[in-house]
Design brief:
The chain has 74 residues and is an all-alpha fold. The protein has a single domain, classed as Orthogonal Bundle (434 Repressor (Amino-terminal Domain)). The protein contains five helices and no strands. The chain starts with a helix and ends in a 12-residue tail after the last helix. GO terms for molecular function: DNA binding. InterPro entries: Cro/C1-type_HTH, Lambda_DNA-bd_dom_sf. This is Helix-turn-helix transcriptional regulator. It comes from Candidatus Caccalectryoclostridium excrementigallinarum.
């Protein structure tokens, strides 16, 4: 399942329309529609949308610091 499809599913689970999610996130409705249709969106808008539906922490986990276990990892 693509990122845009997973986003749309989560948005619907939160019972948010596209218009309401876009408004809450501060992104244009057309940007949200394009994202859900084609998967194209700026990183900034994607993070705003993730925040609006309560999933920004999931993105933060992707870039979480990992414990260094070997000097070659520096």
């Amino acid at each position: 399942m693509k990122l845009a499809e997973r986003f749309a599913r989560r948005r619907k689970e939160k019972k948010l329309s596209q218009k309401r999610a876009a408004q809450t996130a501060g992104v244009s409705y057309s940007s949200l529609r394009r994202f859900e249709r084609s998967g194209e969106i700026s990183l900034c808008s994607l993070l705003k949308l993730a925040y609006a539906i309560g999933y920004l922490e999931d993105f933060e986990k992707v870039f979480a610091a990992t414990a260094i276990t070997d000097l070659r990892d520096l």
